[in-house]
Amino acid sequence: MIEVLVVSKKAAADDICVFELARPNGAALPPFSAGAHIDVQLPSGIIRQYSLCNHPNESHRYEIGVLKDPASRGGSLAMHDQVSEGDRIQISEPRNHFPLVHEAKRSLLFAGGIGVTPILCMAERLAHAGADFDMHYCTRSPARTAFIERIQASSFADRVKFHFDDGDAAQKLDAASLLATPTAGTHLYVCGPGGFMEHVLKTAEALGWPAEQVHREYFAAAAVDHSSDGSFEIKLSSTGQVLEIPADKTVIEVLEAHDIEIPFSCESGVCGTCLTRVLEGEPDHRDYFLTEAEKAKNDQFTPCCSRAQSPRLVLDI
Ligand code: FES
């Protein structure tokens, strides 16, 4: 982990704070690319992921935007209420599961709410590179639109269209028109809340956009219905130990109860930290991290939230 100083904490919109993080001695931070995120360790010890939203050419600081989400399981509330300017916190090196395809002829960026953080970083990068792109940014209202001034003052302001839920019908996002013609060389990037993501992704799929041209990052898992969850077994390939996973426990919870530690972070299938190889059996994938093609291979799964279709999974643990 890297210790960083919270250089500033500023309100960027209603319920959204932007944190500027730097090394206490001012030394350079590890480089990152557009779409990258860092793990942030909160005062309670839990770890959450936040996308970097400053320009990737900057090495003296990282900037993250955090929405105060009342439905948060402790992450965003703690960032808002317990982390202050002048605090020192631990973060990971940046990782990128949502990179730009640099050979794209054109990029179409779709941001919903706080999902703007990686998308803004991408827009900065594309503008800096002189690449062809357009950005669509959907929020509930101007007051809930983070970075609105930064975008309006940017060199790429004319490439960004804002869409407000409380605005008139003419300015609402019309994904079907924007995506009407799948075009070779054009890549889509989508980040936002579940309903927004589903709308854009389903529209793209229905209109024939090839999966390899559509890139998405979930920043929060949607609520999951656990009412039909059943029990299953896991077998650890290293020791042959077999553990029962009851309907009301995750694989990680059972492993922890047996003092078997594997790395995990978001506990909701978003970050990929817990990704584990599956040697036998068929997982019931519940995560937002693996692509559909990766899920279909059934050779890895996220034990923080995913379960099993088969009675037993043999895991590479
Ligand atoms: S801990 Fe994040 S996907 Fe499992």
From TrEMBL:
Q: Which InterPro entries does the annotation name?
A: 2Fe-2S_ferredoxin-like_sf, 2Fe-2S_ferredoxin-type, 2Fe2S_fd_BS, Beta-grasp_dom_sf, DmmA-like_N, FAD-bd_FR_type, FNR_nucleotide-bd, MRET
Entry keyword Heme: no
The protein, known as: Oxidoreductase
Q: Which cofactor does it need?
A: FMN
Domain FAD-binding FR-type spans what residues?
1-101
Would I find Iron among this entry's keywords? Answer: yes
UniProt xrefs under PROSITE patterns: 2FE2S_FER_1 (PS00197), 2FE2S_FER_2 (PS51085), FAD_FR (PS51384)
Q: PANTHER family, from UniProt?
A: CARNITINE MONOOXYGENASE REDUCTASE SUBUNIT (PTHR47354:SF1), NADH OXIDOREDUCTASE HCR (PTHR47354)
Any idea where the 2Fe-2S ferredoxin-type domain is?
232-317
Keywords on this record?
A: 2Fe-2S, Flavoprotein, FMN, Iron, Iron-sulfur, Metal-binding, Oxidoreductase
